[in-house]
Structures are given as structure tokens and as C-alpha cells.
Design a protein that fits this description.
alpha+beta; five-stranded parallel β-sheet; 22 strands; binds adenosine monophosphate; binds glycine
Length: about 425
């Protein structure tokens, strides 16, 4: 079967690597892809905002499965257009992708289905927002109501900060915001595949969203991650599935907008149990890199079962009994304005250490590969323990020569401290 993968980041490089190794995959196409993905796929210069052109490409090239990596084409309804043309698609339709695209939508689903989440108000004007702040204790959380690449959230420690965050949000025309109660606890991510009815739990992870060591500084798309998230014990995972994921899948189906794809639940593990912070309608980046490193099963039949609505007939996925950890190398300046064009050498040396280097923001230039984005590489390794996985990943990182980039040296610190305490 021919497969079309949409996207160009580290998540898509990890997916391309797994898809291409499947005996079921004939030609893997990637649009637009990146130089790392090009090692596994034929890159195509397709503008996926042009749905008709994408459908035509699939027809011409006998594409049997389209895998949509990032959120933007999902929210833009690419899944709808491809399904309307009879294609098998991994990734939800636009109406279901609202679970990621609109915080207010997700909050309304949570209300209706009694899903545990932070208490909130949805506000449409600055005045309404300012007036609502009094109803919350500090810290209080202020969020933009749209796709914001992880940057639209302010955890405000003071009333002044909350007011300023609202001011910034409403300075842009058409802004809407969600103000919500601060949830105390540890965050963990749970990935669940669903075809709209059946669910298949698909691993857990924890990431490091802040740019600086010790989880300090501004939020990013993620500076590193590891899987599994042991803090999400089997008991807590079962609770999250029963109290959060299953009711969501059922509510979406009942509303006539079934969610088909991967539901990525960002959870806060509070003293009262798991609560939903947010949903994403796609795999995490860099969480996908650690999930794919651990996945033993062939990815193609699993994604096909989701796309074709036959997930109930599919067995569980097999995972390596190992910990995977990934360290993101970002370009200097990220998450502000990243320095573009910096030379990258040593990827082969890093892979010779046993690590796998997934490319995210890279571009092929005359002299070799150069940086072309904020997050540039995700150096990923497996180990029997979190400490072994961390050491293996940093051996890979240290073999990379990327003078205009940086990384955090403490990825996995929370889990490592926990493992150390257990002796
Ligand atoms: P979101 O885009 O909703 O995932 O928010 C980004 C990050 O902000 C989350 O990963 C949390 O670290 C933090 N955050 C969001 N909402 C809350 C909340 N209600 N309580 C505490 N932290 C939050
Ligand atoms: N790493 C967080 C995300 O993909 O949303």
C-alpha cells in the first residue's frame, strides 16, 4: 500500500521511520517532509491547504492511507475532504479536531459529560475577563481560545499578571479567552487511539514544556520527553480512561462528530485524581518520538484499523519493555525568534552511539543540513531504566555538532529523582 504522511517535524520523522519499516508499506510519500524524513519517504511538494490537489495526488498515486501529523490541517478540515473522496485517513475531521482547536469547546464537552477538569469561565471581551478574575484564587490560568502552539497560556501568580495576559489576548481582534482554576499536581500525557467508538490505549509520556533547566522560563512546544510516564500508574490510567477519555469519545459520537485518530489527553494528576488540562487531536511532539521508539508492533495495521473503523477487531499494541527518552536540540533564540541557517554536523556520529536522531526544523543546504526552525533535532534513545535512557540520549546529543543550538541537560529529572529514591 502507498501511504501519504503530512507534516515536516520531528513527530513526522518518527512516524515516517515506523511507517516505512512496515512490510505493508510500498511507497511512503511525505508532504512536505524534511531531510530526515527523506531517508524513509519520497518528498512531495504538495500544498496540503489545497484539498482538491491533495485528493488528486492520492488518486494518481494509489494512496491507501493518509496520516495527518500536525493539528493545523486537521482543524482546516483536510480529513473531511479526504474522507469525502473515499480515502482512509488517520486524523479527525474538523468538527472533532475542535477538541484541540477550541478550549471553550472542550470545556463545554467536559461540562456536559461530567469530565473532571479545572473550573473555568469562557469570556468574549476584556471587561468580562477582568470582571471574572475575582472569582478565582491565585495563581489563575488565562488561555487564548484557539491554536497557539503551546504559547497561549499564562499561569498568573498575581492579579496584575492575569490582567496583563487578558489585555494581550484581547489586543488582537476577535480574541476569546478561557480563565480557569490552577490545578496542582504533576502533569502526564496519555495517548489513546480511537476510531470513534473503540479505544486502544497507546502509551504515556511526560514532557518538559519550559525552555530552561529546572523547568524554568517560557513555555515551548516541548524540550524533551520520556515514555512511559510511571507517575501515571495503571490505576490512574484506568481512571483517566473511564472518567475522561471514554466519556469524551462517547460524547463526540453522540453529537454526530465522532473523533477518529489519536486523542492526546494532557492530564494533571491532582490529589482528587486525574483531571483534564487539555486535549490534542494528534500525537505530541516530541512525545511521538519516544512512543515510536518503544512501539514494537507494526504501525500501519494499527493506523489503518483506526482509519477504517475496525479498531475493535484489533489486538493491543506491543511495546518494548524499556524507557525511551528524547532531548530536543533547539536553535538559539527559541522560543522567541530562532537563529536560522546554523550548520549541523555529526548526525551519523550520534546514531553510531545507538541513539536515533529525528529531524524537526532542518533544511538541506549546499554544504549539508542546516537549522530551519525552533526545534531542530530530537535525539532519542532507549534504556532499561530512565537513567540509562537519559545517558544514552545525551551520548547522542554530545556527538552532534550544532554550534548555534542548545538543549536542556536535565531531561527526565523528575522521573530520575523518583527512580533514585526507590534505590
Ligand atoms: P495547555 O495549552 O492548556 O496545555 O496549557 C499549557 C500548560 O500550561 C500546561 O501543560 C500546564 O503546564 C499549564 N496549565 C494549563 N492549564 C493549567 C491549569 N488549569 N492548572 C495548572 N497548570 C495549567
Ligand atoms: N509536546 C507538546 C505537544 O505536542 O503539544
Amino acid at each position: 500500500m502507498n501511504i501519504l504522511l503530512i507534516g515536516s517535524g520531528g513527530r513526522e520523522h518518527a512516524l515516517a521511520w515506523k511507517l516505512a519499516m512496515s512490510p505493508l508499506c510500498d511507497t511512503l510519500f511525505a508532504a512536505p517532509g524534511n531531510p530526515g524524513i527523506a531517508e524513509h519517504a519520497t518528498l512531495v511538494g504538495l500544498d496540503v491547504r489545497d484539498h482538491a490537489a491533495t485528493v488528486a495526488f492520492c488518486a494518481t498515486n494509489a494512496v491507501g492511507l493518509v496520516v495527518i501529523g500536525p493539528e493545523a490541517p486537521l482543524v482546516d478540515g483536510l480529513g473531511d475532504s479526504l474522507r469525502a473522496a473515499g480515502l482512509a485517513v488517520f486524523g479527525p475531521n474538523a468538527a472533532a479536531a475542535q477538541l484541540e482547536g477550541s478550549k471553550a469547546f472542550t470545556k463545554a464537552v467536559c461540562d456536559a459529560a461530567h469530565i473532571p477538569t479545572a473550573r473555568y469561565v469562557h469570556v468574549k471581551t476584556l471587561d468580562e475577563g477582568l470582571a471574572s478574575l475575582g472569582g478565582f484564587l491565585l495563581p489563575v490560568v488565562v488561555k487564548a481560545d484557539g491554536l497557539a502552539a503551546g504559547k497561549g497560556v499564562t499561569v498568573a501568580a498575581t492579579l496584575g499578571e492575569a490582567e496583563a495576559a487578558l489585555g494581550d489576548l484581547f489586543a488582537e481582534a476577535g480574541g476569546e479567552a478561557v480563565i480557569e482554576e490552577f490545578l496542582d499536581g504533576e502533569e502526564a500525557s496519555l495517548f489513546v487511539l480511537t476510531d470513534g467508538t473503540a479505544i486502544l490505549p497507546f502509551g504515556s509520556a511526560q514532557d518538559h514544556k519550559r525552555v530552561g533547566e529546572g523547568d524554568s522560563g517560557p513555555n515551548t512546544g516541548g524540550m524533551g520527553a520520556y515514555s512511559p510516564a510511571r507517575v501515571l500508574t495503571p490505576e490512574l490510567e484506568a481512571r483517566a480512561l473511564d472518567e475522561i477519555v471514554r466519556p469524551t469519545v462517547a460524547a463526540m459520537a453522540a453529537a454526530g462528530t465522532p473523533f477518529s485518530g489519536v486523542l492526546y489527553a494532557g492530564l494533571m494528576l491532582t490529589a482528587d485524581g486525574p483531571k483534564l488540562i487539555e486535549y490534542n487531536a494528534r500525537f505530541g511532539d516530541p512525545e511521538c518520538q519516544v512512543l515510536m521508539a518503544r512501539l514494537e508492533s507494526d504501525l500501519v495495521p494499527i493506523l489503518l484499523a483506526v482509519a477504517q473503523g475496525t479498531l475493535a477487531d484489533h489486538g493491543v499494541a506491543q511495546w518494548r519493555d524499556a524507557v525511551a527518552l528524547t532531548v530536543v536540540l533547539a536553535a538559539n533564540g527559541y522560543p522567541g525568534t530562532p537563529e536560522a541557517g546554523g550548520a549541523i554536523h555529526g548526525i551519523a556520529d550520534a546514531e553510531a552511539t545507538g541513539a536515533r536522531v529525528f529531524q524537526a526544523g532542518t533544511r538541506q543546504a549546499d554544504g549539508g543540513i542546516v537549522a530551519s526552525g525552533g526545534r531542530v533535532l530530537a535525539v532519542t534513545a532507549l534504556g532499561d531504566t530512565i537513567g540509562a535512557a537519559r545517558d544514552a540520549a545525551y551520548r547522542g546529543v554530545d556527538a552532534v555538532d550544532f554550534p548555534t543550538g542548545f538543549c536542556r541537560r536535565d531531561i527526565g529529572w523528575r522521573e530520575i529523582a523518583r527512580a533514585d529514591n526507590k534505590g
